[in-house]
Amino acid sequence: MNTGNKVITIEVLRYRPEQDTAPVAQEYIVPFTDDMSVLQGLQYIKDELDGTLSFRWSCRMAICGSCGMMIDSVPKLACQTFLRDFYPNTVRVEALAHFPIERDLVIVMDDFMEKLDSIKPYIIPEKPRALSEGEYLQTPAERDLYEQFSSCINCLLCYAACPQYGLNSNFIGPGAMALLHRYNLDNRDSGKEQRMPLVHAEEGVFNCTAVGYCSEVCPKKVDPANAVNINKTESASDYFLRFVTPKGACK
Amino acid sequence: MSARGPARRPFVRSMEGWWRKNPYFIEYMVHEGTALFVAAYALILLISITCLARGEAAWNQWLAVLTNPLCIFVHVLLLVGFLYHTWTWFNIMPRTLPPIIMNGARVTAATITRTGLAAALIASLIIFIIAASLAS
Amino acid sequence: MKRSNAPIFWALFGAGGMLSALIGAVLVFITGIAAPSGTFLPREMLSYSNVLAFSQHWAGKGFLFIIIALFLWHSVHRIFHTLHDIGIHAGTGAKLICYGSALTGTLAAAYALLRIG
Ligand code: SF4
Ligand code: FES
User: Fold this and answer.
1) Residue A215: which H helix or E strand, with range?
2) Residues having CB within 6 Å of any atom of ligand 2
């Protein structure tokens, strides 16, 4: 299998703020074997060819969410994408779209961190509970309700796939909405009322035009577009019914 | 200054022409474009009832336009646009619905799309039958 | 955070989108192809007296009104968002032109249908 003498060209969109005014493409010739991921290709470059190249990674197994980048213009996890699938063509890698480039393949993700914080991504119990009262109980059926949305690894591929976020970064965006929905669906949680104003807001779900590409690129099958669009329906019915249903009538 | 000092100069890329860069986005723009066909047909109907309200002479003038082969050809184009709208509308539908559980399992996206398309077919047949019976 | 008023337009967009997806194509076929060409339906169908009788009936009137209004609201909403997509963020201006024309069309349809009697 491993002949070890195949080479592939990796073109990296580089940006070194201290010397570049705008990103520039740089090509590297990388020897590769069929089991090598794009991430391993980049690691080869950094170790053997050019130590100045910057990129994020950690787990190498599609679970930490740090290695998201545009690979041939598609948002992908570099550790889960294989060089063999591009050979003999050049692979083009670029920092995740729709985020500012900090340096080379590293993006500035402060905006997402603020959004993540704003959705209160933790269980808000109805009333404080003492440790002595024991654990929260949840049936498998209750867990199934939100399980899909809890698989998010914050990789931001969905944001790079969302033109609405690219056009207007005030939009809360797919990933954060998937997590918001995940906590709202959890029977141990009572924080829905605190989270919904964000869904209803001008920054909220109605920025979405149901492009659907976010769900297409999600490596964890979270289907963030589904979370966003379910909340459109919920938000709209609240919009029209808020005057007829007394506050706190549901749940 | 701290580590976030002047060395940080994040580069913001332009969104110019974003929809041309990915086949998925090109398709998105095309199916959004079906709105022009829907708008055109609504206008045609609006003109129709306006002429109708003006009386028989105005209606017959408009009818001459409607029966013109060029106008029929325009409607063939509109038909293609509407069919594409139907197809894409029900293709996106699974992403917009809350999970539907039947017999203990979640109804798949393909089933939802197929149900939507079948509903469109049945509704269209009913409308056509009503139209045909009104005509006779 | 300001609450968005989008649900109004979104609901109209959705209703019109669903209606046009279900029966838009067959309506185009009937009124624009089958009847005017006299191929699948008699041309007579579009005679003044037939169309008048259809539009004078409350059901025909209501049907025409709903179709025209919802198709308009559906399409202007999409067009408004597409303008934003291609980089025309005219904000209030584009909003007024898009939703304003749907409103005008809706009123014009109501006026014509009422005049038909
Ligand atoms: S929803 Fe999917 S694509 Fe988006 S951040 Fe979470 S795991 Fe990544
Ligand atoms: S390195 Fe952790 S997801 Fe790729």
Assistant:
1) helix A213-217
2) A 57-60, 62-67, 77, 79
